[in-house]
Amino acid sequence: MVVALILVPAVAAGVVHAADLQPAAANDSGEDAPVNEIAHLSLTGDTSEGLTNQSVDAASAVSIGRSDATARLEDYATAERLNRTNETVAVLNETVADLEARVGALEADQRSTWMRYANGTTGSQEFARDAAYLQARAARLDGRLSRVEGLASRYGAPSQNERIDRLQRRILGHTGPVREQALAAMAGERSSLDLYVAGSENGTVLASIDGSEYVRDAYRTDRQQSPPREISSNAEAFNRFQELYPVAFARSGATTIQGVDGNETYLFLKQLSGYGSLLSYLDGNTRDAFHEVQRRDLETLDQPASETATANGTRLVVNRSYTGGPLRIATYDADTGNATPRPVRVGDRQLDPDGDGISWTLMPPGTQVDVTATTANGSVSVTVEPLDLTPVNASG
Fold it and tell me: Do 165 and 238 have their domain in common?
C-alpha cells in the first residue's frame, strides 16, 4: 500500500489502523474542550440505539476460533500451490477473486445486521454480538489480504496489489477498538463490557468505557463512493480536515495526515494533549469522514455542564454528556465536602462507585435519565438531559 505523509509536527511514518490507536498521555495543557464540542461522526435517518453488556459466549468463541484456523489452512494451501506451479499469476488471480467475493459477503452481512437493528427486528445485545462476529471476519480477511499481498510480491505479481489495496480500503470501517473489546469479552479474554450501540441503514456507532478510557467508534458507508475524486493531495485533505474538525484541529498535540490507497482515502490522526485522541478516515471522492475513532482520558476529561442536588447528608454531582458519551457521577458528604462513596442508580442500572465516590457510565438513550444515590438516611436524585453532540457535517 503506497502511503504519502504530511506530519505536523513530524512523527514516525507508517499506516495507522483504528484498532492500533493508543491514547495520548495526559498533561497539564489547561485547554478547555468540553466533551461534546469536538465534532463526532454521527448517524442520520431511522436509528436504533441502546445500552447492553457483552460477556463470555463460549459457543461463539469456539465458532470464531474454528474460522480463524480454517483461514490459516487456506493461506497454507495457497502458498503450497504457488510453490508447486509455474502458473503463479493464475493462482493469485483466483485467490484474490475469492477474497473479493468474501469482502462482498462481509459488506452484505453488515448491511443486513444494521437494517435488522434499525427496524427493530433485533435488539441491542444481539447487535453487539453480531458486531463482534463481523469484527472477527473483517480482521481475518484483512490478515489474509496482507499475506496474499506478500505472496504477490514474492512471486513477481505486483499487479495484484492494487486490487488488494481496494479490498483493504473496503474493510477499513468494519474493524475498530470497541468491536475488538466486545470480541475479547465474548471469548472470555477480558471481563464483561458495557456498550452503547447504535445502528441505521448506513452506519453504526459503538462506545465503551474501558478502565480509565472512553472509546467511541463510528462508521458511515454512505460517505464512501467511487470516483470522480474531489480531493487528490495531502494539502487539500489537510484543509478539509480543518473544516470537519475545527475544535480538535485547534487543540495542541501532534497531527498526522496520510494519503492511502492511491490517495482515495486520507487518514487524520490528532493527539489531543491531555485529553485523548482522534482518528478519522476521509473519502477522497465524497470529501467526507466515513470512519472515526475517538478516545478520551477520563481522568482529564473536561465536563463543565453538571446537575447537582443535596439531600439526606449527601451532595450528588452529575456531569452531563451526549447520548452514548461518558457520564461522570460523584457523591460527597454535604457537611464536609469530602468524597463519600454511595450506591448509585442510573435509570435501571446499578453502579458501584470507587473509593473517591466517582462512577463512570455511558449516557443512556432518551430525553432524560434519573440518577439516584442511596444513603443511610434516604436518597438524593437529579434528572439529567443529554448534551447535543456536535456532528461532523457532510458535503453539500
Answer: no
Alpha helices, H only, the chain: 58-83, 88-118, 124-154, 160-171, 177-186, 234-244, 246-250
Task: Please say whether the beta carbons of 165 and 261 come within 8 A.
Answer: yes
User: Nine-digit cell at 227?
Assistant: 470516483
Give the 3-state secondary structure of residue 157. coil
Q: 316, 317, 315, 297: which is closest to 306 by C-alpha?
A: 317
In this structure, are 166 and 73 located in the same domain?
Answer: yes
pLDDT tens-digit series, residues 263-280: 789 999 999 988 899 999
Same domain (yes/no): 69, 187: yes
**56 plus 10 within the same structural domain:** no
pTM, rounded to two decimals: 0.86
Tens digits of residue pLDDT in 284-318: 999 999 999 999 999 888 776 689 999 999 999 99
Domain that holds residue 292: 1-43+202-302
Same domain for 36 and 153, yes or no, is no
pLDDT (0 to 100) of residue 315: 94
Could you tell me how far CA 60 lies from the centroid of its own chain? 22
**Total domains, the chain:** 3
